[in-house]
Amino acid sequence: MRTRREFLQKITYSAMVLPLLPSWQFGSPHIDSEPYEGPVLRVAIMGLGGYGTRVAEAMKACKKAKLAGVVSGTPAKVKEWQSKHQIPEKNCYNYENFDDLKDNPDIDAVYVITPNALHHDQVIRAAKAGKHVICEKPMGLNAKEGEEMVQACKDANVKLLVGYRMHFEPKTLEVVRMRQNGDFGKILFFQGQCGFRIGDPNQWRLDKTLAGGGSLMDIGIYAVNGARYMVGEEPIWVTAQEMKTDPVKFKEGVDETILFQLGFPSGAVSSCLSTYNMNHLDRFFLNGEKGFAEMQPSTGYGPIEGRTHKGKLTQQHITHQTLQMEEMASIILEGKEPVIAVDGEEGLRDLKIIDAIYKSCHTGESVKLV
Ligand code: NAD
């Protein structure tokens, strides 16, 4: 079986030649023709929207993961995906009948890429069908849902992973390695600023019943999650403040902008901004007694750019979703341990912090996390 280093070398080569290739070859398995004989994770994507499409394209370059099925409520999309990705009829499902996956030995895992409010029930049904589940962020709408999802996957003896693609991103991992190595000294401060100006007021992201909230659920979660992996600790308190400039577009329960602060056991603090009202906002800054790291962009699709007190981060950009799926296949098939966890417990930790942020916005008080 090929090693991770060999894979990274290969895919790095692919990334170098990509700009020279016609766009239809982007992510194509033909870029790397070396045969791979090991096990392959056969994935059904549930939700064939914008991000599902991106994941499907990126998976074409994977060796250990393969798009093998779909779950969709739109027959026309299923037909289109079938012919584009050579998916047999027997691996196509809709939202009513996907429990029948239990009788399909040709699907190993379901990747849930639907609006946030649907994740809870869909993950639990996929687990009950005996399939490993990858779920997009946010894993659920709140910690209660998250706990039920984690339990359901435990009960079904399947793995639950969350689509935290940054946990595999090479520059991010280099900063984490440097922090673990003590290069920044004692960590004192993290700043995470995540946002974009959201368009169409009628989209599900601005509908509380489907999104579960606003910018925090969608984009601010990167700062919540990033604060934890950059500082390397779990926060013990949260304070947060919400601002709204457009209450028509951002209705009750849909946050436009939230500022939040996290306190960590070591005394490190973090100050973060989540917003649907500013563009060009994708920045991480980590400060320690001996040095710093700054990344901008820090969580977009990349390439991620960054530098530390030691110089520019030069790790090769690899399509995030390709790397994520390749690594998740190793986690599921080989029991590989990722550097930064991506399991259901990890998703649940973020949901507990998100609950606390919303609570603090409403009460105006600091919320303790236990
Ligand atoms: P999208 O609107 O482009 O796609 C959503 C899909 O879900 C559509 O195909 C839609 O038809 C389907 N769907 C099924 N039931 C639906 C319902 N009741 N209402 C509305 N749509 C329904 O959204 P998206 O951008 O693909 O986001 C999907 C999920 O992926 C979200 O949880 C989002 O947070 C996550 N996401 C993650 C990343 C990332 O970088 N990890 C990026 C984008 C989106």
TrEMBL record:
SUPFAM superfamilies cross-referenced by the UniProt entry: Glyceraldehyde-3-phosphate dehydrogenase-like, C-terminal domain, NAD(P)-binding Rossmann-fold domains
InterPro entries: Gfo/Idh/MocA-like_OxRdtase_N (IPR000683), Gfo/Idh/MocA_domain (IPR050984), GFO_IDH_MocA-like_dom (IPR055170), Glc-Fru_OxRdtase_bac (IPR008354), NAD(P)-bd_dom_sf (IPR036291)
Keyword Oxidoreductase tagged: yes
Gene Ontology MF terms: nucleotide binding; oxidoreductase activity
Domain GFO/IDH/MocA-like oxidoreductase span(s) in chain numbering: 174-293
Keywords: Oxidoreductase
Chain ranges of the Gfo/Idh/MocA-like oxidoreductase N-terminal domain: 41-164
Family from the record: Belongs to the Gfo/Idh/MocA family.
Name of this protein: Glucose-fructose oxidoreductase
Organism from which the protein derives: Sphingobacterium haloxyli
